[in-house]
Structure formats: C-alpha cells, structure tokens
Design brief:
The complex is a heterotrimer of chains A (about 450), B (about 325) and C (about 300). Chain A has 16 helices and 10 strands. In chain A, the strands form 3 sheets. In chain A, strands 2-1-3-10-6 form a 5-stranded mixed beta sheet. In chain A, strands 8-7-9 form a 3-stranded antiparallel beta sheet. By secondary structure, chain A is α+β, with helices and mostly antiparallel strands. Chain B has helices spanning about 5-10, 25-35, 40-50, 50-70, 85-95, 95-130, 135-145, 150-160, 165-175, 190-200, 200-215, 215-225, 230-255, 260-265, 280-290, 295-320; strands at about 75, 80-85. The longest helix of chain B has about 35 residues, at about 95-130. Chain B is built from 16 helices and 2 strands. Classes of the chains: A alpha+beta (about 450), B mainly alpha (about 325), C mainly alpha (about 300). Chains A and C meet through helix 1, helix 2, strand 2 and helix 3 of A and helix 5, helix 8, helix 10 and helix 11 of C.
C-alpha cells in the first residue's frame, strides 16, 4: 500500500482497480475471520443434531479439572448433549454474567451467587425449577438446603454444595508460642480474644492472633444471629439493629487496638487463593474460612490447621452458624434447552458419580443421601470439613433467608463502611448508623 | 518550524499542538477558483473518499443522540425504555456514591494534571538546553507514558506500593514507617496520581518540540539586556509556549476525567478501599453493566460530558488572558 | 479549539542527526562544566526513578516467588526462569492463544485505520467539495468527544446485531475511520505536500483516485508509520473494549488474560504474573524503539521540504 511510487510514474491503478482492491480489503476481513476465533464463524449453534449447553461458573484450574471430570461422565451417558464450559475468577465472573444477560446471551446453566439471586430471579431471568419437577428431583435436599433458593414458592436454583464458615487455627503456632488451642465447640468470643492476644504477645506481633473480615457478610451473619437478630428477615427486610452492628465493629476494633488483630491497612487485596492467604504466609494464627476451602488451606498451611466452630455459639442468645452454599446452580429462563439444562443439573445434584468426581470443591453434596454415599471415599481433609458440616446439619439451627434484592449492593457498601471504621475515619457507632440507613434504603429502594 | 509529525503525534487521542499559522490561505483560494467549473464531479469524488467516514459517523452520531434519549429513561435492557423525565438526574444528586466518585475524579484530575504538566515542562526545559544523548533521555522519559494505561503496569503498581513493596522498603531506609498504600483510603488514590505523573513523557515531548520552535535570538537579546533566568522564562518561554501548554492542559483534563482502567485494575474492579479509587467512569460502568441501570448510566455519561465541556470552555475563555497566539 | 486546530502546519522535516550534533555542540560550548554535570545528574536521577519500576518488574519475573519481596536487589540472587514457562500455561488457555488474539486484533486495526483514515484524510486535505468545512469541523468535534457518551448505545447496538463475544465491535469501527485523530494526523501531513503535485498530476490526466493512489499515498509513508505505531500501542493496551465485548476466555486479549492472574479464588503467582507482564510489555517497547528510528528515517528520506 505504501510502496514508493515517484510522482507521475505510470502506475496501472485507476479508480476502478482501487475500489476493487479496497473492496477486497474489506471482504478479506470476514473471510480471514470465518476461520478464526472471535468472528462468530465457528458456530456454537447446532451443527446438525444434538444440543450444546453453555455452562459457566467461577473458580480455579483445580475446580475446573474436577468439574470437567463430572461433565465427562454426563456427556458419555448423553452423547447428544455437548457442554461448553467457561469459568473465571469470581470478581469478573459476576460482571460478565451481568453483561451476558444484558446482551440476551445468557448461559444455560450458571453459578449464581446467593446475594445476587433475587436480582436475577425478580427480573424473570431464571427458570423456576418447580415447573420442571419431572426432570429434577429435589427431594433429597435437606429442608434448609432446599430453602436457600426459594422465592415466593418458586425455586430458582439448587445449592452446588453445602458449606458453612469455620474458624481455623494454626496448631503449630499455638504450640510454638505455648498457647492452648481452645475447645472449638464451646469457645466464646472472649476465649478468642485471649487466645489471639497471647499469640500476638508471644510472637511480638510477628504473628497476629486472629484476623477475619468485618465486611464479609457470611461472617457478619453469624454474629447477628448470635445476638438474636437476622441480617435479613423472612419477609425480605433488614433485621439487624444498629446496636448489633456497632457491637460487631467495636468487638473487632477492640481486638485491633490490643494488637490481637492486625492494624488497619494490613490486609491488602492481593490474591485470594489459599497459598497467598495471610494464614498460609504465617502472619496470622487464625481466621474464618468457608469449609469447602479447608482442604486447600490446610495444604497451604502444611497440614497444621484445626477446624473450630465460630466462637460464641454456646454462650449466645441463639445459634449463629448456619448451613449455606458457596453458590447455587441456576438455569436461565431464556435457555433454548431448558430440559437438557435441568437434566444436567439433576445429574450434578443427585448422581453420586458426579459428586465423587467433583469432590467437595463446592462443599458437601446438597443431597444428604449422596453426601453419605461419597463420605467413604473422601480425602482426610475433606472428611474433616464434611463431618463438621454434617454435624451442623443435624443440629437445630435457625433457618437462613434468601438475600433480598439489593443484597449485592449491601455487600458493596458494607465493604466501604468497614474500611472507614478500620481506619478510624468513622466511629463504630457512626458506621453502624450509616450501614442501617443505607441498607434500608437499598432494600426498599 | 521544526516540529515533525513524530514529535507532535504523541498519543492517540491527543491532538497536534496548535502552531502559528504559516501557510498563506491564498493558495487554497486559488485552488478553489481553478476548480470552480467542476463542482459536481469534484463533489462526488470527495464524497466517495469520505464514504467509510460517513458510515463511521453513523456509529457516532446515532449513539450520541440515543444516549441523550436514554438519559431520560429507566432502561434495564430487558424491558423497553420508560420515559421518566429528569428523575435520573435528580437521583444523581442524592446518590452519595456518585458524589464520591465525582470527588475522586476531581481530586485525581486537579492534582495529577498540573503536577505532570509541570514535570513535563521542567524536564523538557532541561533537555532543551542542549545536551548530549538527548534521544536517549527522551526515549527513557517518553516510554512510561506509552505503558501507563496498560494492565501490566497498573498491576505492577499494586506490588510496588504493596505493604512489603519496594516503596515501603525505600521509606524504611529513612526510618519512615510502612504505609498501607493500596488498602488505606487516604493513600490509595495517591498511588494512582503518582502513576499519572510517571507518564509525563507524552506532554514532555510536545513541550520539547515547542521549545525548539522558539528562536534562540530572543534569549540572546534578553541576555544582552541582562534579564535573569526567571525573567527570561516568564517573558519569553511561557508566552511563546502558551498555546502548547493550553493544548496539553485541555488534552490532559479530558483524558483524566475519563480514567477507568487504573481504578478498575488497581482494586479488582471495585474502586476500593472505601471507594477511594472509584473513578466516575468506573462507577458508570458498574451502574450500566453490573446493575443494568442503562438509563442512569446514560445520564451519568451526559453529566460528565457537560462537566468536561464546562472545564474546556473555562480553559478556552481564560485562554485569551494567558495564551499568546501571535508570536 | 477548532480555529487553533485547523491551522495548516508545515511539517518541516528535520533530520535527527544534525540536531544531535548541535545538541552536543551546545553542550560543549554553551555552558559551564559544572552546570552540564548537574544537568546530567538530574536527568539520570529522574530517568533511574522512572525506569526502576520496569527494571524491578523484569528482575522480579526472574526470581523465585518467595524472594520477590525479600530480595530487593535488581540482580536476582537466585534465578527462576520457570516463571516464564509456568506462567505461559498458568491460565485456562496458554498465553499463545491470548497473544495471537491480540495480534489478530492489532493487525486488522492497523489495516483498517490506514485504509479508512487515509481515504478520509485525502478527501479533507486535497479535495474540494460542498460541505467540506462542515464535515471537517464535525470530524474535529468527534476527536474531542469523550467516548463514554457513546458507550451504552453502542453496546446495545452491537448486542442487537449479535456481535457480542466477537471481535467485530473492536475492529469494524477502525475500518470506518472513526478514529479522528489519525485522520487529523494524515490531513496535517497531506496538507504539507506541495499543491503542485496535484496540479501536475491533473495536467497529466490523473483523476483524484489515481492522484491519491500513485502520488499522495507513497509520500505519506511517515504519517502511515506514525498511525500504525500508535494504533499498535493503543490497541495492544486496550482494556475496556475487550472487557466489555468479550466473554469467552478463548477470545481474551493479553490485558484481559493478565488480569485473570489476580484471581480471588484461584492461585496468584507473582513471579508468573510478572513474567507474563514483561512479555505483554515487550512488543510495545520493541515497537517504540523500532518505530522511533523508522519515523526519523522516514521523514528524512521523504526529501520534501
């Protein structure tokens, strides 16, 4: 195009040729394209018979491997179904999912965050599984598990697994600094403070005794319920009082002031994996984790973790812990192949083969029967978490209610307020008041 | 004039600096007269050349007015847009997060733009004094401005300013306690301002080209008159460079108001800690593409357009007091 | 603004070589030894501070993970080239896929910009037609228009056409001369070419297209090189467009892939991430070094005064 051509030299190009050429140039783009990725050529749409399902979720490569193993079993039994899987990190996943719905390009089967469920369900974007009761059997779910995705009598998802939050303690640090590990079933928040203080003092704050996020809703929920309240009530209102919020901030602030808990700004958003966690790096002696991650955390900590309940369970007004799920599986109402998508969901939920393949990367199987069945073949660390959870399931825990619409917004500004309190830019009382005001507005808004 | 396209074309989105008019208009007029009788053919040829551009303008003009319309609607992409008048704009005034994002964007712009322009001018003046290895220095200072918007560099910034990062290690040598640069709401934006200043190379190259245009005889004359360095700077450099300063200022303001990637990558798309890096465009993205509030996001877009227009206009109207066009 | 922008500007070529010599000469005679020394010290200090992050990046990419924040020296005490091999394969697809995606987009964008912008620029710079001034002003106006205003309707439009999760939204606008900056750049350059060229061509019987193709285009090589380099750098760095339009990880460009490294649930390996960062920056730095030379040479050899 830019070949040197002295002015006036007799070139063969005339107008027509030029346009032919430029036309060629334009035509070459889609031409080149049809064979490549990204030009809509390859066709995810059915080439001949068979159905292609698009399934999306978040997680890492290990989880991908295990999930694929389960899907392979499914596609072997259903050769007419192909599954196109996409997975991402949880942050971008959430954004991407929103954009895909916005673009009318919803995946058939997707991982759905608990706090986003209502935002999608209320918009009519998710399939009501009750209308497909013939294709999926939800009877194996415990009442608690079945409730997790229920909105006004409709069921918009199935827990991909069950988990809870648990307190992990590095027993090697406890030993090194000569501090006894408290009894995980009966310990109180004061016990935690004493333990953490002892570790911090003994290590000269090279290791902080404890550190858990004030802004993580799953942590807060336990605390709120121990005070006899619900973060969200059955009818979708905000149930927590300003006093309870203030107590939460004050409790953590007290730990921070005394040095049992790291100073403001200690936690940075650098990688959330177990390997990079502060407890694995040896900077913390205890923290709260979701139980389905126990395996990877314990591995990262050299097998030195003990799994305890959240403190205060026996002293509080009522039980705070609950059985939750890392995420739900939901089917899009716009799915072109709802029957097949539901069938796959049924397989993942009720087929022990599937759960054997995935292990507990998303928690204990939601179906109790399946959970019992695979228990024998779990790795020891997974067994610890599984027994912890099965233990909880057998107890009389208060039921948790679905997040109201606006739930994800609440998570967002709790994050802001917690940081403000952490750095002393707001008092716990102000932060609590602001939280109540904004959360109320978000839910009613 | 020694400016070359190399030196003026500094970054996409930037425009070549205004330069004193040199070419007599009469040439154009003469051409026009000569071509007078062949209007229709000439028109057709011109339009044919502009054909891709005309089609491209549809991609600009239609969305432009469409977003103005959407700004007055409630639209979530699934249902048809619903006309709600000024409600989106009224909501904006009541939205504390929006006001926060505006504050973040303003602080960022009004701190980093003057600082980076000052750095650019300062270094350009040292380079213009005549120095060996000029191309080397210019390359070293210019390179970061090509990288500043890349994800790799923003990620790198997170680690440099991490708690265990090299900045804290450096401060440690002077006995300064480690600062939680990225997780403390008081400092997080500072790291991005420093990143912005780090990219001062692109205005610097433009300044350097401008400085080269100033005839040395002015300085020689001033030196003969015994003018001090400062006086020479004030009376010769600044006035003669003012059109270029003006140009750089407008470009930097417009670009800075639209910052997105830095805030997005620095804190995993969230604008944290405590929304201290929630740039206006980042919040716009969240509203539009996470919350589906397309109407609200359009209203935000138009509001920012007006804000940018106002600041550009202010710069323009004050320009006659400090920009010198007849050199 | 427009009156300042429209000022025709003679792009008088200046070869860099005489300039450098002049600079060295001025340095030798124009100032005292002490002030020269001070200037070099200041410049070197600034240069070092500015380069340090990049050097640290390269050095860290070669260190084992555990040492990155402990060993602060630029020269690794322990080498770990495995960051590159492991990082290359750390994500769902290997980085070869992401690099080839980026390269496809960049190459097509360059072709598109050169093609469409040169046509438009020739129209604006050297043809006369009804409404030229108006369209030119409009073009300059779009240059000032913040892109975010168009974002949402464009997104909706592309979604309706079914272009989401394809490269079309990233490419097609480049074939339609939507980047006014490059048009402006070429207009400025074409205006600096002597009008006599066109006149002579017309006397020889060349129509406007032939004049454009055989006479103007070959002379515009420096402007094309500039356009190509800036297109390369901006498209290679582009984050927002791909973020918005690409959902399938197989289609990801390098910046999107890099961001995947900071995973909130998966593993984030600093050394590997830094290694891939180095690789992602290398083409820009390469183009910058190669491009600077080419541009200077291109301008010098065009021989237009």
């Amino acid at each position: 195009m830019t070949t040197e051509r002295p002015p006036g030299s007799g070139s063969e190009f005339n107008r027509r040729n030029l346009f032919k050429l430029s036309g060629l140039g334009l035509a070459a783009v889609p031409g080149l394209a049809a064979c490549g990725r990204g030009f809509g050529g390859g066709g995810d749409d059915e080439s001949g018979d068979g159905v292609t399902l698009n399934m999306v979720w978040w997680g890492d490569a290990t989880r991908a491997e295990k999930t694929q193993a389960a899907l392979d079993i499914f596609t072997e039994a259903n050769p007419d179904i192909t599954i196109k899987v996409e997975y991402q990190d949880s942050g971008p996943y959430q954004d991407k999912l929103a954009t895909r719905f916005a673009a009318n390009d919803a995946p058939d089967l997707m991982a759905m965050r608990m706090d986003s469920l209502r935002e999608y369900a209320d918009r009519g974007a998710l399939l009501d599984l009750n209308e497909h009761a013939d294709d999926i059997d939800l009877s194996g779910l415990s009442e608690n598990a079945a409730n997790l995705a229920e909105v006004d009598g409709s069921v918009f998802g199935v827990p991909a697994g069950l988990n809870a939050v648990g307190f992990v303690i590095r027993t090697d640090f406890a030993e090194q600094y000569g501090v006894a590990v408290p009894d995980g079933n009966t310990w109180s928040w004061d016990d935690l403070a004493t333990f953490a203080q002892a570790i911090s003092d003994a290590s000269g704050q090279a290791v902080y005794g404890t550190g858990f996020d004030a802004q993580t809703l799953q942590n807060l929920v336990v605390w709120v319920r121990q005070q006899g309240e619900d973060l969200f009530t059955e009818d979708g209102k905000l149930g927590v009082s300003a006093a309870t919020m203030e107590a939460w901030f004050t409790m953590i602030d007290g730990l921070r002031q005394s040095g049992a808990y790291p100073p403001a700004g200690f936690f940075e958003e650098i990688g959330g994996g177990a390997d990079q966690s502060y407890i694995a790096q040896g900077k913390l002696a205890s923290q709260i984790i979701p139980t389905n991650n126990f395996l990877s955390y314990n591995e990262a900590c050299g097998g030195n973790l003990a799994l305890l309940r959240i403190p205060g369970e026996t002293q509080a007004v009522r039980r705070g812990q609950s059985v939750d799920c890392p995420h739900l599986w939901s089917v899009a109402s716009a799915s072109k192949h709802p029957k097949e998508a539901v069938k796959l969901l049924d397989f993942l939920t009720n087929d022990p083969e599937a759960s054997l393949a995935t292990g507990t990367t998303r928690g204990v199987p939601a179906s109790s029967a399946v959970a019992e069945e695979i228990k024998g073949s779990l790795e020891p660390d997974d067994l610890v978490a599984t027994e912890y959870l099965i233990g909880l399931q057998g107890e009389d825990l208060p039921r948790s209610y679905t997040y109201p619409p606006g739930g994800s917004a609440i998570a967002d500004f709790l994050d802001v307020i917690a940081v403000e309190v952490e750095f002393g830019r707001q008092t716990p009382a102000d932060g609590a008041a602001q939280f109540i005001a904004e959360a109320t507005a978000a839910i009613e808004g | 004039m020694t400016t070359t396209p190399t030196e003026t074309a500094v970054m996409p989105g930037a425009v070549a600096p205004p330069a004193p008019q040199r070419k007599p208009l009469s040439k154009f007029m003469a051409r026009k007269r000569r071509q007078g009788g062949r209007g229709v053919r000439k028109d057709r040829a011109g339009y044919l050349f502009l054909l891709p551009w005309f089609i491209g303008m549809l991609f600009t003009v239609v969305p432009f007015f469409a977003s103005l319309y959407l700004a007055f609607t409630d639209y979530n992409l699934l249902n048809a847009p619903k006309w709600i008048g000024l409600e989106n704009f009224a909501d904006m005034f009541r939205d504390p997060v929006l006001l926060k994002s505006l504050q973040v964007t303003f602080i960022y712009t009004f701190v980093s733009v003057p600082l980076s322009l000052a750095a650019a001018l300062g270094v350009a003046m040292i380079l213009n004094r005549g120095i060996r290895g000029l191309p080397w220095y210019r390359a070293v200072f210019y390179l970061p401005s090509l990288l500043g918007a890349s994800v790799a560099v923003v990620l790198l910034w997170r680690y440099i300013f991490g708690f265990d990062g090299i900045v804290n290690a450096f401060l440690g040598w002077f006995g300064i306690d480690a600062i939680s640069w990225t997780s403390d709401p008081d400092y997080a934006l500072t790291t991005l301002i420093i990143l912005h200043i780090w990219t001062f190379g692109s205005p610097m190259v433009i300044f350097l080209a401008g400085l080269r245009q100033i005839p040395t005889m002015y300085y020689e004359a001033a030196a003969v008159d015994g003018a001090s360095k400062w006086r020479r700077f004030r009376s010769i450099t600044l006035p003669l460079l003012s059109p270029i300063i003006f140009f750089n200022l407008i470009q930097s303001l417009i670009a800075s108001f639209q910052t997105f990637t830095q805030g997005f990558v620095m804190n995993n798309g969230g604008g944290g800690p405590a929304n201290s890096t929630l740039f206006y465009n980042l919040y716009l993205y969240q509203q539009g593409f996470n919350q589906f509030n397309m109407g609200y996001a359009s209203a935000m877009a138009w509001t920012l357009l007006v804000i940018i227009a106002v600041f550009t206009a202010i710069t323009f109207f004050t320009a006659k007091y400090w920009v010198n066009y007849d050199s | 603004m427009s009156q300042t922008l429209q000022t025709p500007r003679a792009a008088k070529p200046s070869s860099a070589k005489p300039n450098e010599d002049a600079d060295a000469l001025i340095e030798r005679f124009g100032s005292t030894r002490k002030s020269r020394f001070t200037r070099h010290v200041i410049l070197c200090a600034i240069g070092l501070v500015m380069m340090y992050p990049l050097l640290w990046l390269v050095s860290s990419s070669l260190k084992p993970n555990g040492l990155i924040f402990e060993d602060l020296s630029l020269w690794p005490t322990e080498w770990s080239p495995s960051n590159y091999t492991e990082g290359w394969n750390a994500l769902e697809y290997d980085f070869g896929i992401y690099f080839s995606n980026s390269i496809i987009i960049v190459v097509l964008s360059i072709i598109g910009n050169l093609f469409s912008c040169s046509l438009a620029a020739y129209g604006f710079a050297r043809l006369n037609f009804t409404g030229r001034k108006l369209f030119f002003a409009l073009m300059l106006g779009t240059m000032m228009l913040p892109g975010h205003v168009l974002l949402i309707p464009q997104y909706i439009m592309f979604a309706k056409i079914g272009w989401l999760n394809t490269y079309y939204p990233l490419l097609v606008p480049n074939f339609l001369a939507t980047n006014a900056f490059y048009i402006f750049l070429m207009v400025q350059f074409m205006r600096s070419l002597p009008q006599e060229l066109d006149d002579a061509a017309r006397i020889d019987g060349c129509g406007p297209f032939r004049t454009f193709w055989s006479i103007i285009l070959p002379l515009c090589r420096p402007a094309f090189a500039t356009t190509a380099i800036f297109t390369f750098i901006s498209v290679w760095n582009e984050f927002f467009g791909p973020l918005l339009y690409l959902t399938d990880p197989e289609l990801y460009t390098v910046p999107l892939a890099l961001r995947q490294f900071i995973d909130s649930e998966g593993q984030s390996q600093w050394g590997q991430m830094f290694a891939m960062s180095v690789l992602s920056l290398a083409p820009i730095i390469g183009f910058f070094i190669a491009g600077q030379k080419y541009l200077v040479k291109g301008i010098a050899t065009t021989g237009l005064k």
